[in-house]
Structures are given as structure tokens and as C-alpha cells.
Write a structure and sequence with these properties.
The complex is a heterodimer of chains A (244) and B (214). Chain A is 39% helix and 25% strand. With 244 residues, chain A is an alpha/beta fold. Chain A has a domain at 5-90 and 158-238: Rossmann fold (3-Layer(aba) Sandwich), CATH 3.40.50.300. In chain A, strand 8 and strand 9 form a beta hairpin. Chain B has one domain: MetI-like (MetI-like fold). With 214 residues, chain B is mainly α. Chain B contains ten helices and no strands. The model of chain B has no long low-confidence stretch (mean pLDDT 89). Classes of the chains: A alpha/beta (244), B mainly alpha (214). At the A-B interface, helix 3 of A face helix 5 and helix 6 of B. The structure holds adenosine-5'-triphosphate (ATP) and magnesium ion. Adenosine-5'-triphosphate (ATP) binds at residues 14, 19, 37, 39-45, 87, 196 of chain A. Magnesium ion (MG) is lined by residues 43-44, 87, 162 of chain A.
Chain lengths: 244, 214
């Protein structure tokens, strides 16, 4: 299953500081969409609004062209179709397998299916051998792989990834990028990827958006965005930020 | 002599165990809900709670005595000078302790625990359970501290229980009356039992914490 996502006029401030100054964006069902932008631009804030953790002051977010329902049960059902891997993910106390099974347990998956899906998800990120390891002893890369498996195992129709490979070595990056491609291919789910890393955006995304100072500056297909950007700010950003 | 020691010890454990259990059933859910609440609305409750937290056990005993006494509102139930009356007095003492510690450990569980569970699709009830699970070591400590307070408490059980031979004598009250009657070896025997119970409880607590931490 899949989901479209659209934001219009989205405004979010913290105190006197306006972080999102009117975001307009449309992500098509099934695409891998990257959002790039400098640190502090509001990328995480945008994802947290989409995933119901923050309430924007103005504007609307449409999930499959409808606003989130106010009815509690319907809202939970919608929330459960949207998954996210947070920047610096938090793992619950317990084993890697416990963490991965969390979302399944919450959705009343049990018995053989629970065991199988948990094992498969760990396998998919090369973590099968550490299923029984305590979360607190995992390395940063292992923890990030568990966090990805935990988000993907419940098969969200919209998967939000916030700097999901930051600080990882190239082989861990490869494992996770392959897992994202495989997830997108096999489920048809929509993926929104936030990254500083423009090479990652190039490798994974079909379309890319630049978020600068709370506004979307440019959106375009990946080749066009990087090879032939229309906005001078995109040109500057693409040229200037090749720190990786 | 050995027979009465067994009986006294058993009653101590029964009364304190029951009151800790009842207090836990009240305090852990309520403390979790209050701890989850972020601002304001729980403040009055918190203040009341911290007053109770510092309530001297003797005063709690007096209060329960008045409520249970013949002229009191619960007089007709005839609970004064019964083990059940002692349980009520200890519940009054122990509940605020367990509640206060639970509330504070739950409220210090990282915001990220809640956010993570929420993003993974948890509803309100599942959120509370998840936070409680992360706070499990602290909540266990709260329960153990509550039991420790109950079993070592003397004033309230003396007032409400009346220290009636073969009926409402517990370890702490007997130690006091023993000393009054110069029964020192009996008092020391009971003291050792009290110490052993405390040591057992705390080693159990320690082991549970070891297992639930990390
Ligand atoms: N809860 C908050 N309270 C106050 N300010 C906040 C809060 N959350 C974010 N901000 C501010 O909003 C701005 C945007 O933050 P955000 O985390 O969205 O940036 P980002 O684009 O994800 O940056 P990075 O690439 O470094 O992760 C920052 O300046 C940050 O300080
Ligand atoms: Mg961020």
C-alpha cells in the first residue's frame, strides 16, 4: 500500500521563532522523495509535523488528499500508516528483537507471525545474529539498523527517514540504502528522506526538494535538481555543501 | 515462645504485604498518569501528595483510629484492633510514598520514549505501559521502599491494632513492649528477624534492578 502526502502553507514556530514559514509540497504515492537543506533549516520539524508529533500553527497536511480525521480511532489508524526513523533514534530497554517487535505487538500481531516478521526484519538489515543483544550494547550503526527495521516491519504506507545513515560507515550506509530501495520496491510505499548528504539523495531519490530557512526553494527530478537547478540558491547549495 | 514468634512474624508479613499490595494497585496507575501529565493540572494533587508524603506515621495512625473508632464514620465496621484495620492504616502511609516515587520516575523517563512509542503507533494506554516499562526499575524501588516503610512502621499499627496478644501483635510493636517488660532476648530475636526480612527484600530489589536496568 502507498500514500500521497501534501502540505500547503505549513507554518510552525517555537516561541517567537518561526521555523517553517509556509511549506508547500506534494509527494506522489510510491516515490522516494528527498528533502535536503542546511542544518537548522527545519527538516526535522517538518517531518515531526507530518508524523503528528508537532501541531502546526497554520496550513494543512493532506494524507491521500484528506486531512487527518479528528475521530480518535480513525486518527490512530492513520498514524499507524505513517512510520518514521528519527534522527538519533531511541531504542527501548530490552533486546534488538524486542525493539523490532514493538510496533507489531502494538498492532496485536502475535505467535508465529510475530516471530517470523521480527526475524525477517532483522535479517533484512543484517542484524539477525544480534537479535538477542541488549539495545544498550549495540553500536551506533547497529542501533540505526534496528531502528530502521523497527519502523519498516509494520509496513507503513508512508515512511519518513530523518538522516537515517548519519555517522555510519560506508558498508552500513549500503545496507540501509539497499533496505530502503527494497522496502519501496516490494511494498510500493512512499518514502520521504531527509538528508544532508547529496550523494545519498542522488542514489535513492526520484525527486529532491531544497528546504532553506523554513521554505521550499526548489523541487525537481533528481538529475535536474543537481545538474541544472533553476534557483540560484539551489545552485549555491549543491556546489557548496559537498562536505561528505 | 517460638510459636508466638512465628505468629508475630507471619502477621507482620501479612499486614505489610497486603497493605503494600493494595497501595501498589492504587499508587502505580495513578502515579503513572500523574507522571505522564506534562503541566499544571496535576499541581494541586501533587501538593496534597507531598504533604501526605511527609505525614508522620503516628498522625496517620491517629487519623485512621478516629475514622475506625466507634464514633467514627467507619465505626460500624468494627475494624479497630483488627489486622484489617492495621492494613488500612499502612495503606494510608504507604500509598503516598509509592505514588510519589512512581510519579517522579515516570516523569523523568525521557520524552523520546513517549515520542518513539507514539510514532510506532501506540495509543494512550500503550504509551503509558511503555513509559512504565522503561521506568520499571524505579517503580520496583518505589514498591520496595513502601514495603520497607510498612514493615518497620510502629506508631500507626500500635494505635490502630492495639497490640492484642495473639491477634494484632507485630514485630515492631512487640519489640517495644518486650523492652518495657525487660524481655531483651525475645526483643533481640524479633529484631534479627526484622533485619533478615529487610535484607531479603533489598537483595531481591537489587537483583530485580540489575535485571531491568540496561
Ligand atoms: N522544540 C523546539 N523548541 C525550540 N526550538 C526548536 C525546537 N525544535 C526545533 N527548534 C529549532 O528549529 C530550527 C529547525 O530545527 P530542525 O531540527 O527542524 O532543523 P533540521 O533542518 O532538522 O536541522 P539538522 O539538519 O541539523 O537536523 C532549529 O533552529 C532549532 O533550534
Ligand atoms: Mg534534523
Amino acid at each position: 500500500m502507498t500514500m500521497s502526502l501534501a502540505a500547503s502553507g505549513l507554518v510552525k514556530s517555537f516561541g517567537a521563532r518561526t521555523v517553517l514559514e509556509g511549506i508547500d509540497l506534494r509527494v506522489e504515492p510510491g516515490e522516494i522523495f528527498a528533502i535536503v537543506g542546511p542544518s537548522g533549516a527545519g527538516k526535522t520539524t517538518l517531518l515531526r509535523c507530518v508524523d503528528f508529533l508537532l501541531r502546526p500553527e497554520a496550513g494543512t497536511i493532506l494524507y491521500d488528499d484528506a486531512v487527518a480525521p479528528s475521530d480518535l480511532a480513525a486518527r490512530i489508524a492513520l498514524r499507524r500508516r505513517v512510520g518514521m526513523v528519527a534522527q538519533n533514534p531511541f531504542l527501548f530497554r530490552g533486546t534488538a528483537a524486542y525493539n523490532v517487535s514493538f510496533g507489531l505487538c502494538i498492532r496485536d500481531v502475535e505467535g508465529e507471525e510475530l516471530t517470523r516478521r521480527t526475524a525477517d526484519a532483522l535479517q533484512g538489515v543484517g542484524m539477525a545474529h544480534l537479535a538477542g543483544a541488549r539495545a544498550s550494547v549495540l553500536s551506533a550503526g547497529e542501533a540505526q539498523r534496528v531502528a530502521f527495521a523497527r519502523a519498516a516491519v509494520v509496513r507503513p504506507d508512508l515512511l519518513l527517514l530523518d538522516e537515517f545513515t548519519v555517522n555510519l560507515d560506508p558498508s552500513n550506509v549500503n545496507i540501509l540504502e539497499a533496505a530502503v530501495r527494497e522496502y519501496n520496491r516490494s511494498t510500493g510505499a512512499t518514502v520521504v528522506l531527509v538528508t544532508h548528504n547529496m550523494f545519498q539523495a542522488k542514489r535513492l531519490a526520484g525527486r529532491v526538494a531544497l528546504l532553506l530557512e523554513g521554505r521550499i526553494v526548489e523541487v525537481g527530478p533528481v538529475e535536474e535538481f543537481f545538474e541544472n537547478p533553476r534557483d540560484p540558491r539551489t545552485r549555491a547549495f549543491v556546489r557548496g555543501e559537498f562536505a561528505y | 515462645m517460638a510459636g508466638d514468634i512465628v505468629q508475630i512474624t507471619a502477621l507482620s508479613l501479612l499486614v505489610s504485604g497486603t497493605s503494600t499490595l493494595v497501595a501498589t494497585l492504587i499508587a502505580v496507575p495513578v502515579g503513572t498518569l500523574l507522571g505522564l501529565r506534562e503541566v499544571g493540572s496535576g499541581r494541586l494533587l501533587r501538593n496534597i501528595l507531598f504533604t501526605l508524603y511527609g505525614l508522620p506515621p503516628v498522625l496517620a495512625g491517629l487519623l485512621v483510629f478516629l475514622v475506625l473508632s466507634k464514633a467514627g464514620p467507619l465505626g460500624p465496621l468494627r475494624l479497630l484492633y483488627t489486622p484489617l484495620g492495621m492494613v488500612i492504616a499502612q495503606v494510608v502511609i504507604v500509598t503516598p510514598i509509592i505514588l510519589g516515587i512512581t510519579m517522579s520516575v515516570v516523569s523523568t523517563v525521557e520524552r523520546r520514549v513517549k515520542d518513539t512509542a507514539f510514532v510506532l503507533g501506540a495509543d494512550r494506554y500503550q504509551l503509558s505501559v511503555t513509559v512504565l516499562r522503561e521506568a520499571a526499575a524505579g517503580v520496583l524501588t518505589a514498591i520496595m521502599v513502601g514495603f520497607g516503610r510498612a514493615i518497620s512502621e510502629v506508631g500507626a499499627v500500635f494505635i490502630v491494632g492495639g497490640h492484642i496478644e495473639g491477634q494484632t501483635q507485630v514485630l515492631t510493636t512487640t519489640i517495644i513492649t518486650d523492652i518495657g517488660q525487660a524481655e531483651y532476648s525475645h526483643a533481640v530475636a524479633l529484631g534479627v528477624i526484622l533485619l533478615v526480612i529487610a535484607a531479603l527484600i533489598y537483595s531481591l530489589l537489587y537483583r530485580l534492578q540489575e535485571r531491568t536496568l540496561a
